[in-house]
Write a structure and sequence with these properties.
Elements (H helix, E strand, L loop, with lengths): L2 E5 L5 H10 L3 E5 L3 H8 L12 H10 L3 E4 L10 E4 L14 H12 L6 E4 L7 H14 L8 E4 L9 H7 L2 E5 L2 H11 L7 E5 H32 L3 H8 L22 H6 L10 H26 L8 E5 L15 H10 L3 E5 L11 E2 L2 H5 L4 E4 L4 H4 L3 H7 L4 E4 L6 H6 L3 E4 L5
Parallel strand pairs: 1-2, 1-4, 2-3, 4-5, 5-6, 7-8, 9-10, 9-12, 10-11, 12-13, 13-14
Antiparallel strand pairs: 6-7
Helix pairs in contact: 1-3, 4-5, 8-9, 8-11, 11-12
């Protein structure tokens, strides 16, 4: 049985490992977080939230003895393929921070065998495969990339809430450093992918992935800018979006309380890393600025509403509804809730955070109990569009709260109904 090693057991690595195990490979997952290792070795997914089929698949491959987890990189020896899926963040100056990637590459290189495929699925800046990944692997292994072992960048295209579907049914980009590497990677991925695979070089694959996310980030920024404009004009941006999208070839995105996750807030900066020699990017940085502003606009709306209601923010109980960056997930990376929480904690407000999937965050008062969050609250700030919030009854909500203020960052409520029930209501892109 051929062995596949997956380095990094996060939102990408865990479902990918399960898919290869289900396809008949012996899969070993490597991670530095002991709690993840222990959970997987118990047959339990470390990923919570609504992920159709993942819990069942992990239990199945674990029971069959096809998947185990460890922190031991010696498992890379004699592997058929090694897939690297570690975080690739940017720092406060938007420069790539490849600490985790460098560490993983060094450990993989020390245990790399001839004829093994190394595939980088992490999103990386242009030329990282050839200028960083390849030299480290060659130095640590003493082997030659493209001759002694195969090397490709095959970026993930996953999305929270549909992880397994995305792995199998989304088209795959295969970016080998040479023809042999691309062929080897394509042979591997066809074991789990039903969709089309497109072969290119590693640089084009790098730029393709970062461009995909920069494109989406820019589209969201356009919607968010129209939300600001709609508020000024006194119209509803969501009605505007609906009408705009009746025109052929128009697909305006949803505005909202902010862009989170591990991809969109940093991948545009990865795309632009090293640029500026012959041109200065304008549109992509501007989009990042707009999207980064949305949590602070939520703060502005909340403070305006409390002023209208004669509520002192410093003495108010603020219920922040949703800590995950996306609905029905436990993924909190770069959550837009964080700036909102920090602001109100800094000024002395009593802040309680509700999330049905996120159980604990250091330094925060968290609850999964709606009553605990909302009873006695002066202002409820809805950051995340969890399904649970869509079923809230306004009449029940107004009875629980001390002061009836709703700040709606995800178009969860109808403005007229909220006002009718006695709420002071302010929403992103809504008439105030």
């Amino acid at each position: 049985m051929k062995k596949v090693v997956v380095v990094g057991l996060g939102y990408v690595g865990t479902p990918v490992a399960c898919c290869f195990a289900n396809a008949g490979f012996k899969v070993v997952g490597i991670d530095i977080v002991q709690s993840k290792i222990d959970m997987i070795n118990r047959g339990e997914s470390p990923i919570k939230g609504k992920e159709p089929g993942l819990d069942e698949l992990l239990k199945k491959v674990h029971k069959a003895g096809k998947l185990k987890a460890t922190d031991d990189y010696s498992e890379c020896k004699r592997a058929y393929a090694i897939l690297i899926m570690v975080e690739t963040p940017v720092d406060d100056k938007n420069i790539p921070r490849y600490k985790a990637l460098r560490s993983a590459l060094t450990s993989v290189g020390k245990n790399l065998s001839k004829d093994t495929l190394v595939s980088i699925e992490s999103t990386i800046a242009p030329r990282t495969t050839t200028d960083l990944v390849k030299p480290i692997l060659e130095k640590e292994s003493g082997l030659k990339a493209g001759e002694d072992f195969y090397l490709a960048h095959c970026p993930e295209r996953l999305r929270a809430g549909v992880l397994l579907e995305a792995i199998t049914n989304y088209n795959k980009i295969i970016g080998g450093i040479n023809e042999a590497s691309s062929k080897k990677a394509k042979e591997l991925y066809k074991k789990i992918i039903k969709a089309k695979m497109y072969v290119t070089d590693s640089l084009t694959a790098e730029v393709t992935k970062t461009t995909e996310n920069a494109y989406r980030d820019t589209q969201i920024a356009f919607a968010n800018e129209l939300a600001y404009l709609s508020e000024e004009l006194g119209i509803d941006v969501f009605e505007l979006r609906k009408l705009v999208n009746t025109s052929p070839s128009r697909a305006m995105h949803f505005p909202g309380s902010g862009v989170g996750g591990h991809c969109l807030p940093k991948d545009p900066w990865l795309l632009l890393h090293g640029s500026g020699k012959t041109f200065k990017p304008k549109l992509i940085p501007a989009a990042r600025e707009i999207n980064d502003s949305m949590p602070f606009h939520m703060i502005e709306l909340a403070e305006e509403a409390m002023k209208e209601s004669k509520v002192n923010p410093k003495k108010a109980k603020i219920a922040v509804m949703g800590y995950a960056f996306i609905e029905d997930s436990d993924d909190t990376r770069d959550t837009p809730a964080a700036p909102v929480i920090k602001h109100f904690m800094d000024i002395g407000s009593e802040v309680i955070v509700h999330d049905p999937y996120v159980k604990a965050v250091d330094g925060l008062e968290m609850t999964g109990d709606l009553n605990e969050a909302l009873v006695g609250a002066d202002c409820a700030i809805f950051v995340t569009a969890h399904s649970r919030y869509k079923s809230l009854k306004l009449k029940n909500l107004v009875q629980k709260m001390r002061n009836s203020i709703i700040i709606d960052g995800r178009d969860l409520f109808e403005r007229k109904k909220c006002i009718k029930e006695g709420f002071v209501y302010k929403g992103i892109g809504k008439k105030h």
